[in-house]
Amino acid sequence: MTNRATRRVVSSVVLLIAISIFASIMFNEKASASWAGAKVEQDNAQVGEQTMEQKFKNIQVLKGLPAAQLRPMMNYMSASLGVTCAACHVKTGDEWEFDKDDKKNKQTARKMIQMTLDLNKNQFEGKVEITCYTCHQGLGHPASVPPLPRAMQREQARPTQAFPTPQQILAQYTQAIGGKVAVEKAKTRLLKGVSVAANGQSFPLEIQFESADKVALNVELGQTPTTQKLNGAAGWLKSSRDDRAMDSVEILKIKSLAWSLEPLQLKEPYPRLTFGGWEKVGDRDCNILRMALPDKRRVRFYFDKETGLLLRRVIQTDTPIGTDPEQIDYEDYRDVDGVKVAFTIKTSYLDTNYSSLRKFTEIRHGVKIESSIFNK
After folding, report:
1. What is the pLDDT of residue 28?
2. DSSP state of 51
């Protein structure tokens, strides 16, 4: 493997585990006023964070947005149109020149972004209802003719079974993983295994977990260790090429990882939690619970109707141009100190380079962890 390829793999693994190191990708757009209806000033600059035009060159319409939101927005557009960065951006040799306006597609993209912003602002009270995906649905050019033959529309039968309450679903889940007493004893945990990148390569992984806001990760590729630490509202990344604080979006991702490792995070009285219907995960029938988080993200939990175990969690984060989803699937539950824990966790993102499979070979509860390990 070349040094260039090795560096790319290391970056992908780091990102899929917890964070995204955001590249200088940009669209040049028109006026920050356009974003008012799209709730952009939202924590706009979460205090002290750079805006896009402060960090990147030739930003026009995306002015005023946190710089950390740029990569998720680019990923959303890429997935919506089924294209890569090269569709709009210029690459000379191995170097991307994102500030250049040479390609017509980039000019068209600006107009399309402005169009959806205006539609949402003027027709939907600023709610993000019209997005790239509304029309494109994975196609570079949106289809204008309905496909034939059309499926016969049949009236769906109304469900005859009573809806379970969130309390019933969570009680079944709590019992399935070992009960509240056993779970409460499993405060700290040490997890060892491998992280399998999207290209199939695997790397040794170790996670030290104290709580949902205190976690330390270590990934190794040969002699190149990469560590990520979360301590409350702050986080740090250190590798052979980086030694810096994480930005707000990266913090959200590592917190999401920490949350995925905690067996019981939903606590009574279950605020903002509602029943969301039934769906399948693979061949398993699931009860769905929906919850709105205080930071306005939305979460769906998929619990196996028969076993009660959590099989999937989907977090949706709004951006001004659409929703950025994160999906985590839980498999291979085993008993560890009286608590059932998933030994295989699959994480999926719109950018498949960051999707990953974490397979644990060892999980221990109640381990002693020095508090200093979570500091920079």
Report:
1. 31
2. B
